[in-house]
Amino acid sequence: MFEFDNSYARLPENFYERIKPILVKNPKLIRFNKVLAEEIGLDLREDNTKLGKIFSGNLLMGGSDPIALVYAGHQFGNFVPQLGDGRAVLLGEITNQNGSRFDIQLKGSGQTSFSRSGDGRAPLGPVIREYITSEAMHSLNIPTTRSLAMVSTDELVSRETLLPGGILTRVASSHLRIGTFEYFAALGDIKNLKLLADYAIERHYPNAKESNSRYENFLSLVCDKQASLIAQWMQIGFIHGVMNTDNTSISGETIDYGPCAFMDFYDPQTVFSSIDRHGRYAYGNQPNIAQWNLARFSECLLPLINDDSNKAISIAEEILENFSIKFKKYWLVGMCEKIGLTENIENHHVLLQELLQLMQKDKSDFTLTFRYLSDAIKNKSSQFEAQFSSKNEIASWLIKWRESLEQENKSEGAIKKLMLAINPAFIPRNHNVEKAIFEAVNNYDYSYMDRLNMVLNKPYHYQSGNVEYMNPPKNYNANYQTFCGT
Ligand code: AMP
Ligand code: MG
């Protein structure tokens, strides 16, 4: 049973539209994430037919008060004053035994008044992509929204062709975005802006209340969460693909898996999204874009930070400058750990840059290079060296690296353990995700998807039977593109 407690629906009515999910023809449960259900305190014992009805929105559970949230957002740099949940509804919120609150949202649940020209639906392929990737991100220990269930609708969705439809049940610690703040700020509605900020502080950053400058603290805490999140994306080779302000969560979770993808070989300019023609959201640009997004957020909060706008601006500017400092620190600490170094971090910057430059020149696989480096602490590792064509250069880098390791005063075993715990063997490689989607959508065969999910569930464990999932594709497709399409 869901025991809903819908705090957002108690906010004023201009925060959302009350709307029920639009019925679908013949919902069928594809997968229900029992482990997640347990984590969030959900005890659902219904059979699959009933779960299909619940997770399509055809059957509303008692206590649910479905709403579509309004928000605005900067999309590729351009401000759109009203976006909102155009194909999603928030069924309600639940709280688990630890007191953590979760939004239960259906994505692909039909039109709302925020749909603009969209059909409110989602093709099954992108639903599967979000399920696989968000759960993989969670297993990689990166803050993210989760996937509770997938349903097929037995309806066709019209994109470039007709595609089978699906609905994803997304679990988030909330769906507050920078865009939610931009919506009220652009209207000049300070009263509701303040209400929203107080709600967000209460829900995500209650410590911010402890001083007189709560909104300043709030901004600083959101910046800190984003700095940490983006550093983690960078350390794992994740490219979000649409870092618009409406896809930037206030809680600091990765949200809105559209054209996201993991990088195979290292190149900071990597872009997969078909709509990102100028590389605004390229891998290497993500920290700058996060700061740009946070600058938009800080503009919204100015009237709350200080009545004197000049004072408010200088406070916000300082916090934003701090974002760069914090990001660099998170990045450097994490990257140093990836190469087994935990002390005198600042001294290792050059060593790291040299490795990354070589990786870029030699198109080394981002994931495997770091994973196999842990075999090279004392010995030669042919798998590590195979990632490089510049044999002499990587050999001299290894000598310098080993000298730095010597200064750590740790055993080989301890260093290796650290490295294996932070450098995954398994990431959701694009060719594997595509194969899972293809088999599911075209052949109604979910076995490859299940196997992939199982492998990705333990990304840091060497799984001898699943080595093939570690490797990049044999024939790399340089034209590989991902599509927003959910
Ligand atoms: P996204 O880029 O996926 O984060 O979506 C941006 C905006 O477009 C959000 O307001 C979505 O709700 C809306 N949207 C995207 N796809 C659809 C669709 N098929 N129907 C209605 N609205 C959509
Ligand atoms: Mg979005």
Index terms:
single chain, 486 residues, alpha+beta, six-stranded antiparallel sheet, 12 strands, 42% helix, 13% strand, globular, binds adenosine monophosphate, binds magnesium ion
Please explain how this structure is put together.
Strands 2, 6, 7, 8, 9 and 10 form a six-stranded antiparallel beta sheet that branches. Strands 1-3 form a two-stranded antiparallel ribbon. A two-stranded antiparallel ribbon has the order 4-5. Helix 3 crosses helix 14, helix 4 runs antiparallel to helix 5 and helix 7 packs antiparallel against helix 8. Among the domains are: 168 residues, no CATH class; 158 residues, no CATH class. The protein has 486 residues and is α+β, with helices and mostly antiparallel strands. It starts with 15 loop residues before the first strand and ends in a 30-residue tail after the last helix. The chain has 15 helices and twelve strands. The mean pLDDT is 97. Bound molecules: adenosine monophosphate and magnesium ion. Magnesium ion binds next to loops.
